[in-house]
Design goal:
31 strands; alpha+beta; single chain; 644 residues
C-alpha cells in the first residue's frame, strides 16, 4: 500500500499545494529554507492539526475571519494480496454495510441481496489488481475523516455526517486457508456440509458509525505504519520490554524489537548488522540487552570491542552519534517489514556525514517496495537516489507551491549538465547563474565583485563553461540551446542571468551580430568583456612581479617591477589580430599569450603560466593592493547582475 496522490489545503504556508502524484520508491522533496518542506512532511504523516494559512490572501483585513480547518485530500493504492492480509489484522467484528435504504428515518432491509453482496465481496478479495481509497482529512477535532470513497463500491464509502449511524452485517473469514467471507447468523442449525438452515434475516448485524467501515480500518492500519524521522537526536536507546515485534511509528521501542530479532529471524538480524557496518564502518554489531527490571537497551559493538571480545568496551546507543539511532530504525523497518511501509526522513545530511547519507540512500534503493519521502538540500543525495519523483517547493513570499518533476526530466537534466561540463552540485540551490568563459573567470569574478565592487553574490553562482569549443563556428548556438533545455519548465536549476564571453579578435559588427542572434524571450543573453579577454585586466607590473617572485624560489636576485614593465612595453605585434589594434593595446592584445611568454622568459622557463592558478593569484594581489585597477571590470559585472 502506498500514498499515490496528495493535496494539502490551508496548512501553514500552503493555501493549496496542488495535487501531487507520488509513487513507491524514493520521492525527494527539495526547496530553499522556509519554503514549506517540513510542513509538507508533517502533513504526509496524515495526522493533521489545525494550523491555517495566514497571509493577505486569507486575511485581507484585520477584521477578516479565517478558515480554521486544515485539510488534505489523499489517495491510497492497495494491492489485492496485501488487502487480503490486512483484513486478517482487523480486530473483530469484520463487517460490511447492510444493503437497504432509509424511508422516513426507518431502515428498510433488503435481505434478498445480502448474500449476493457477500458473493461480490468474495470476488473482490480474490481478483487480481489494486484497490484505491480516496480520503478527505481535516484537522477538526474528533471529525478528522470527512470522506472515504472506495474504488470498489462493495467496500462501502462514507461522506457527510460523521454522527450518522450505519447498518452493518457481520461477516467471518473462512478458516480453511482461503480468503473468503461468510455471513454470521444469530441462530442457525448447520448440516453435515456446513450450510446454515435459517432465514437470511437472522444474520448478525448492528448499528455503528463510519469507523466500522473496512475502508476506514484499512486507512488506520496504513496511517499507523507511517514512520517519520526528524533531523534531531532520537531518545530511543532504551525502553520497557513488552514482547512486541512491531516497531512503533516513533521508533520508541527500538530496543525491544532489536532484543527479539536475533531469535525471531537470525537472517534479518545478520543483514541489519551488515548494512549498519556499511554505513558506519567502525561498528561491527548492534544488539539489545536486558538491564534492571523490564528495561532493555541498545548497545553498540565497535570493531575493537568485537575483536577483543570485550562487552565492557561496548557503548550504549545514547552515547553514540546523532544519526546512528535513525539509521538503525530505518534499516529495521525496510528489512523486517513484510509489506510496503511509508518512511519520511527530514534532511538526512543534517544528522549524517555526506558519505554515510549517500550509503543510506543507496541501501534504500535496494528496497524499492517501500515508499520514502526525503527532504534534502543535497544535490549528491538527489543524484544518488535517482528518485521516482522530485517535488520542488517554492515560496513566493506569500504561500508555498509544490511541483512534481518526473524522473525522466531529472535524467534529461543531468545529461544536459554533463553536456556543458558541470555537475548538479555546481548549480543546485542558486538563485540564478552567470555563465562565464572559463574556470579562470569562475574563480576570479566573485573575488572582484566582493572585494572591489563590494557586491555580495547573495545566491548568484558564477560558473565557467567547460565546452568552450562549442561557442565558435557552426556549433556556436549549441550552448545556448542546451541551456534553453535546462531552463525549460519547473526543473532543478535556477534561471540564467547571462553568458559573458571573451571577445577575442572580433570586431564590433561581429559582436553585435552574435548578440542579436542569441535572444531569450526577447532579451539578449550574450555579453562580451570590454577587453579581449580577462587576462587583459591583469597586466599590472607590480602584480606580475610579485607572483613570479613567489613561484620562482630558485632565483638569486628577485625580479623587479622595472624589468616587467620594460618587457610589456616591448610587446610584439604577434599578440594582435591586426595592426590597427596596436594603438589600443591594453584592450586588444592577446594577454594570455603575452603572460605565457613573459613568465617563461623572465623566469628563464622555471615558472610556467598556468590557468586558473596564476590569473587568480594576480587577481588576489590586485584586489588587495590596487583595487581601482579592476574598477571598470567590477562595474561591468555589477551592471550585468543587476540588470540581467
Amino acid at each position: 500500500m502506498f500514498l499515490k496522490k496528495f493535496e494539502l489545503l490551508n496548512y501553514k504556508s500552503y493555501i493549496n499545494s496542488t495535487l501531487l502524484d507520488f509513487s513507491p520508491g524514493i520521492n525527494i522533496i527539495i526547496g530553499q529554507n522556509n519554503s514549506g518542506k517540513t510542513a509538507l512532511l508533517e502533513a504526509l504523516a496524515l495526522r493533521l492539526i489545525s494550523n491555517p494559512h495566514r497571509s493577505i490572501k486569507t486575511l485581507p483585513s484585520r477584521f477578516s475571519k479565517i478558515e480554521e480547518q486544515s485539510k488534505a485530500e489523499i489517495t491510497l493504492t492497495i494491492d489485492k494480496f496485501e488487502f487480503r492480509k490486512l483484513l486478517e489484522q482487523i480486530p473483530p467484528p469484520l463487517c460490511v454495510l447492510e444493503p437497504g435504504y432509509l424511508d422516513d428515518g426507518e431502515w428498510i432491509r433488503e435481505p434478498e441481496i445480502v448474500e449476493s453482496s457477500i458473493y461480490d465481496f468474495n470476488n473482490l478479495l480474490n481478483e487480481e489488481g489494486c484497490i484505491e481509497l480516496e480520503i478527505s482529512l481535516s484537522s477538526e477535532l474528533n471529525k478528522e475523516v470527512q470522506r472515504i470513497f472506495a474504488s470498489s463500491s462493495i467496500l462501502d464509502s462514507f461522506s457527510g455526517n460523521q454522527d450518522h449511524q450505519y447498518y452493518y452485517i457481520q461477516i467471518s473469514q473462512s478458516k480453511d486457508g482461503t480468503i473468503a467471507a461468510d455471513l454470521v447468523y444469530n441462530d442457525a442449525d448447520y448440516d453435515e456440509m456446513g450450510y446454515a438452515h435459517c432465514e437470511t434475516e437472522s444474520y448478525k448485524g448492528f448499528r455503528s458509525n463510519y469507523k466500522q467501515l473496512i475502508s476506514y480500518k484499512i486507512f488506520e492500519l496504513f496511517r499507523n505504519k507511517i514512520y517519520r524521522f526528524y533531523a534531531e537526536r532520537l531518545n530511543i536507546s532504551s525502553c520497557f520490554y513488552s514482547g512486541s515485534y512491531a516497531l512503533k511509528p516513533d521508533a520508541s521501542n527500538l530496543a525491544e524489537v532489536l532484543y527479539l530479532l536475533p531469535t525471531k529471524n537470525p537472517s534479518q538480524s545478520s543483514k541489519l548488522n551488515k548494512l549498519v557496518s556499511i554505513i558506519f564502518p567502525n561498528i561491527e554489531y548492534v544488539s539489545s540487552v536486558q538491564k534492571e527490571g523490564s528495561i532493555v537497551e541498545v548497545v553498540i559493538w565497535t570493531v575493537e570491542a568485537c575483536r577483543e571480545g570485550r562487552e565492557d568496551l561496548t557503548l550504549p546507543l545514547s552515547a553514540c552519534g546523532t544519526g546512528l539511532s535513525q539509521v538503525i530504525a530505518i534499516l529495521y523497518i525496510v528489512i523486517t517489514s513484510v509489506f510496503p511501509r511509508t518512511i519520511i526522513i527530514d534532511e538526512p545530511q543534517s544528522f549524517l556525514h555526506p558519505g554515510a547519507a549517500k550509503k543510506l540512500i543507496e541501501i534504500l534503493k535496494e528496497f524499492p517496495q517501500h515508499q520514502y519521502f526525503i527532504a534534502t538540500h543535497s544535490p549528491m543525495l538527489i543524484t544518488a537516489a535517482y528518485p521516482s519523483r522530485i517535488i520542488k517547493i517554492v515560496h513566493d513570499g506569500c504561500e508555498s507551491e509544490a511541483f512534481v518533476i518526473q524522473p525522466d526530466k531529472l535524467e534529461a537534466q543531468l545529461e544536459i549538465l554533463d553536456e556543458v561540463g558541470v555537475s548538479l552540485s555546481d548549480v543546485f540551490g542558486a538563485d540564478n547563474i552567470l555563465w562565464v568563459e572559463e574556470p579562470t573567470e569562475e574563480k576570479c569574478f566573485p573575488l572582484i565583485l566582493e572585494k572591489v565592487a563590494k557586491k555580495p553574490l547573495r545566491g548568484t553562482k558564477i560558473i565557467g563553461v567547460q565546452s568552450t569549443g562549442q561557442l565558435e563556428g557552426k556549433n556556436a548556438k549549441l550552448i545556448f540551446e542546451i541551456y534553453d533545455r535546462l531552463s525549460g519548465g519547473i526543473y532543478l536549476l535556477p534561471p540564467m542571468i547571462r553568458f559573458i564571453l571573451d571577445r577575442e579578435g572580433k570586431d564590433q559588427a561581429e559582436l553585435n551580430r552574435r548578440r542579436d542572434v542569441y535572444l531569450k524571450d526577447g532579451r539578449k543573453v550574450l555579453e562580451f568583456l570590454p577587453r579581449r579577454m580577462y587576462e587583459n585586466y591583469l597586466l599590472l607590473p607590480e602584480a606580475i612581479t610579485h607572483v613570479i617572485n613567489k613561484d620562482d624560489t630558485s632565483r638569486e636576485i628577485p625580479l623587479n617591477q622595472v624589468e616587467v614593465s620594460q618587457w610589456i612595453e616591448k610587446y610584439d605585434k604577434k599578440y594582435f589580430s591586426n595592426l590597427e589594434q596596436v594603438t589600443q593595446w591594453i584592450e586588444h592584445i592577446h594577454a594570455a599569450k603575452l603572460l605565457e611568454d613573459l613568465f617563461s622568459e623572465l623566469s628563464e622557463t622555471r615558472v610556467e603560466f598556468k590557468k586558473p592558478h596564476h590569473p587568480y593569484e594576480l587577481t588576489k594581489w590586485i584586489v588587495e593592493n590596487q583595487p581601482k585597477f579592476l574598477s571598470d571590470l567590477a562595474q561591468f559585472l555589477v551592471n550585468i547582475i543587476e540588470n540581467g
